[in-house]
Amino acid sequence: MTNHWIDIRNSDVILIMGSNPASNHPIAFKWITAAMEKGAKVICVDPRFTQSAAKAHIYAPLRSGTDIAFLGGMIRYIIENKLYFEEYVRNYTNATFLVNPEFKLPGDNNGVFSGLTDGKYDKATWSYQTEGDGRIKKDPTMQDPNCVFQLMKKHYSRYTPEVVNKITGTPVDKLIEIYKIYGSTGTPDRAGNELYAMGWTQHTVGTQNIRTMCIIQLLLGNMGIPGGGVAAMRGESNVQGSTDHGLLFHIWPGYLNTPKASLATLAAYNEKETPTTKEPNSLNWQKNKPKYVASFLRAMYGTNASLDEAYNLLPKIDDGANYSWLNLFDVMYKGKFTGFFAWGMNPACSGAHSNKVRQALTRLDWMVNVNLYDNETGSFWRGPGMDPKKIRTEVFMLPCAASIEKEGSIINSGRWNQWRYKAIDPPGVALPDGDICSEIYFKVKELYEKEGGPNMEAITKLSWNYGTKTFDGHYHFDPHSVAKEINGFFLEDKTVENPTKKGEFKEFKKGDPVPTFAWLQDDGSTSSGCWVYCGSYTDKNMSARRDGKKDPTGIGLYPEWAWAWPVNRRIIYNGASVDPSGKPWSAKKAVIKWVGDKWVGDVPDGVGDPGSGRPPFIMKPDGVASLFGPGLADGPFPEHYEPLECPVEKNFLSPQKSNPTIKRFDKPGVGSDVDVYSGIDSCDPKYPFICATYRISEHWQTGLQTRWCPWLSEMQPEMWCEMSKELAKERGISNGDKVIVSSPRGEVECVAIVTPRFKPFNINGNILHEVGIPWHFGWITTKDRQYNPGDKKAEVFTWGDAANLLVPTIGDANTTIPESKAFMVNVVKK
Amino acid sequence: MVDVNRRGFLKISGAVLAASGLGISLKPVSAYAQPLKIQYAKETTTICPYCSVGCSIIVSTRKGKVVNTEGDPDSPINRGSLCTKGGSIYQMANNENRLGKPLYRAPYATEWKEVDWEWALERIAKNVKTSRDKSFRAANDKGELVNRTEGIASVGSAAIDNEECFVYQKFLRGLGLVYIEHQARI
């Protein structure tokens, strides 16, 4: 989230689209309600009339997978009706930039942007025109036909309400009503916020769904102000933190790209990865990247290795290769891994195409599964259709401490890092994850020290000063020492010039915490595990602060409750809340103010002194936000493409039906025999219904923790399929009947829930049905499975298996997040 | 940890309750006279382990057992409220189905066997070393230095603390893994 939970109360219009906070982030609704009490309008757009829709002022249905069409229509409406915040757009976005005249839009190029060959874009034409000195050519009047604003206007001129209606199924009057209300936040004293979750990410155009909304927020001047922003509501309590800390193939902690094989040295990495700019007023904050990289390398190896050595010791990925989730399980399915850690995860239920995932697990030599409860992954070898006597995988199921049985921090969607305390000991001999990880590390290290092995220093030289071995030989992991390492400290005595005040110097002693990331160094004299957390643990543990009353700005920032990255800033991009002269665009929506000789309010973001001319989006090399975003794989402007599996014969906007840059797993040489799809080129009558997975309040994720909790299982014990009355009638299904939901990947038994919450869509004259299934179920907590002596048995049994058994192996073109929100199924009465 | 604000809150609400009870009904007064179920309990705070709103929860323990969990009124985020899941963490602490011992399933075995930590950790370490050494590549097909372990993969975890995430990625990257993924990708 660019803003934070409490800030939702400052919104004038709230768009709930791609999410259902009333069910899935229930306490968030406290702040939505607070906004409503002050007169805010709430809009909910969803294929299903959700619990959030029930609380909204306006609800509009849309067919799954058509969000870009819906929002593209909104961009058109905002531009046509001049609802955009012109000064904001002119000064703080790249609307004025002149694009290469060779660049072609999909409307003029058969539905794709210029440069497409074999499913990949050559981005040569997605570039800017430049002056002799390298600066980007601009047209402040935004009239030049090649300027970003005019290109955007032209691109979305195709998204008329009639075309949008044909694609989405949303009635035209609803479209106009919503466009008008949301567009009303383009004035300086009004703010609109958008709340999304997996309803937007789990599509082959997931990243572009979000990009479309970012464009709208920038056009309306909604970024950086209270009640504005784009709210990514994350699905797990610490998925923000696990992402910040680089538990993904493509990033090191702090969003530093994992080095590629072609970058042979640290110098080559820094040269390639550090952005430069020719824009004279742009701060280009990322020019500091080498400091963060050096500090991370120090946090890995301390002074046991030089920076260059540390860089070389760490693994490199091949250029252009993708090691993400769907590929990972594909490689596993092909038997290419011998070992696997499933740590605090249940991929046998959470992975798309779970049958493929479950089969993949049979091809391992060993697996380590760390968890609170027995689960479908650890016990895969005795799951449905498995014959343990034929499965060689050696499995270790390690019991770990729950959140209240250990100490440490987690960070919420609003980037507020909060400290948790230990209340009790874990059950039996279960251990905190940090202890388990340390124990395995020391055992592996010992083996390498004894027996040697390739690149062994990469292991033996890691710094691991996080605790001590106790008398019983057990390693106790101290989260405070790690939190200090994540924050960062000086490795030597050093005098450093104040990064914000030239000529002023500060002395640091070896071991002193680094106050903020601005003080980090590129010469190896500082260590910092994750630069965005620098400032979180300085002279005290900032994340443990608990003053929940102090609110000096009156807009709910509560700066002394916990700590937010970066630098305790609560509203990111707040430099854009003031005009170029430094005055808040609106007194009602002020986040920062220049008083005397400094900014007061939130921690200022990006602004220089008033009138300095510095554009505020300092994380972008050119200093402005991107309406035109050439960084993405599938286009600089979002364009509507149909989901890979879809119920329509063609894309009503262009001849290009689905995203041309996605990786299909059914192509020769890619994927495997089980990667099958339905209805790609034309509709497949065997699987006529659209299906989306969703969540409910009573369960969490695969249900691994909540299905073992009797209170929750009692409330929601069964896997179901929700469908319209019309579909039920067509298929002879009554409420409560058992049904089989199937896709080309598998089938799931469900209880039919027949509700008016789903309505058939009228798509260009055709009636299309959509159904929804929750993804919280799995076989381990069911009654009818085989139990061995000593097996844990749920107090309240659940019924049904994983929704992901049906989901295709297909991901977003940029992130590869699977398309769980729009795939095709059949539903029959059992 | 001391939780002065909350105690203050309880005192005030107790007084209000008592005052409003006078002359209207004796019920609230008698209810207040009941010993609180958190009497003599130690309080610690935690953050809900489920969704990402970050609601604060007060955990009351007595003699090493959780006796109560409830929303923390001091948190500006949830102001004491909790949803169904947040309200259920009492059962996460008091749950006989939690795993308390390492379990091991040998190749082709049909059931779990309880093992001790030392044995499990040693065997895991050996497996890690065998897999790593067998699949380690110093250079790729182009001859570029890659120093990576291709035969081991990891998924996890958004369910562990930041400090554990950092240390876990350190462990994995130290081993040379490149197949490092988790919940954020799905």
From TrEMBL, chain A:
Its cofactor is W-bis(molybdopterin guanine dinucleotide); [4Fe-4S] cluster. This is Formate dehydrogenase major subunit. Belongs to the prokaryotic molybdopterin-containing oxidoreductase family. It comes from the Bacteria. Its main location: periplasm. GO terms for biological process: anaerobic respiration. SUPFAM superfamilies: ADC-like (SSF50692), Formate dehydrogenase/DMSO reductase, domains 1-3 (SSF53706). Gene3D superfamilies: 2.40.40.20, 3.40.50.740, Dimethylsulfoxide Reductase, domain 2 (3.40.228.10). Keywords: 4Fe-4S, Calcium, Iron, Iron-sulfur, Metal-binding, Oxidoreductase, Periplasm, Selenocysteine, Signal, Tungsten. The keyword Glycosyltransferase does not apply. GO terms for molecular function: 4 iron, 4 sulfur cluster binding; electron transfer activity; formate dehydrogenase (cytochrome) activity; formate dehydrogenase (cytochrome-c-553) activity; formate dehydrogenase (NAD+) activity; molybdenum ion binding; molybdopterin cofactor binding. GO terms for cellular component: periplasmic space. Residues 690-760 form the Molybdopterin dinucleotide-binding domain. Its EC number is 1.2.2.1. It is found in: Periplasm. CDD domains: MopB_CT_Formate-Dh-Na-like.
TrEMBL record, chain B:
Keywords: 4Fe-4S, Iron, Iron-sulfur, Metal-binding, Oxidoreductase. Its EC number is 1.2.2.1. SMART domains: Molybdop_Fe4S4. GO terms for biological process: anaerobic respiration. InterPro entries: Mopterin_OxRdtase_4Fe-4S_dom (IPR006963), MopterinOxRdtase_cofactor_BS (IPR027467), TAT_signal (IPR006311). Residues 41-97 form the 4Fe-4S Mo/W bis-MGD-type domain. This is Formate dehydrogenase major subunit.
